[in-house]
Prior knowledge:
The chain is 43% helix and 10% strand. It is of the alpha/beta class.
Amino acid sequence: MSLFVHHMMDMDNHYPPGRSLYPFVTLQMRRIRILAQRAGGRLLGFVAYDPFREADKGENEAVAVVERALKSGFAGVKFYPPSGYKPLGNTKKDMSRSGKDPSRINAVNERLFKLCVDLDAPVFAHCSPGEMERWKGAGLFADPKYWRKVLEQPRFNNLRLCLAHAGGDAGWCAKPGLPVDPDFVPEVVRLCQTYPNVYCEFGHTEQLFVESNRPYFARRLADAVTATGVRYDFGTKIMYGSDWHLLARTPDVEDFDDVFRKIFRGNQTLAKYEHQFFGLNALRYLNLADFLSRNSGSLTRQEFEYLSFLAAP
């Protein structure tokens, strides 16, 4: 059995006018649904979210786009802070480069989180420093400490959230005792251990291509899954991923997942989590049962039957 998840990017408001070659709502979303239908349930799409879409239009477009998508075949939401916004707590200083109203961005983000909690739909949020920053330094808006401001609110305690890239491979692959700045990793682990529906995935792990880094990664991961006095076992919250550029750079695309298999099978502590890492945790995060319930009329028969089989207990 196989299942692939595609995470979209809404860049319409982040390129100069007229430079977005493939309009997000009218073209990209339609194409992803066609691909998913042709895959017969083996491909799920996550619709991209951009709060600036609402700030520019002066209407409820940002959340409305997401809500329509979540009820017409999309499985979750892609949230990308390096485009210039924090989950909550945006200030005038944060918005100075974009010229947006911070109170408006905070409000529309809250509406998104309420929608996702109400539907129990998963949010996939970029959570490593840098990458595709709208301006230099915008990548720090992905710091997981900003998600704590969301999750500590009782109405958002159960938000189904994946902290994508698990804080970044610099933190996971650092030699013991060396400081990492910024170090997102400890907060990612704490959030996964504290909240019932918070997960993380290791899709941005370029440093694992260097074999000498793998023991450091294994040691940090083993320490996290054996932590005591926590609410949730970190080993039940970790997921395999493959960011696009990693597959472009690895010497052998077909063997990319084998790097992780060697790490898990070579460590007695991690070995028992291999199946959870490669699939079981992801199925729990995706919450396919609720997805099928709200999308039964939007899926092809083949999609519905295949995903129903995966969702079965």
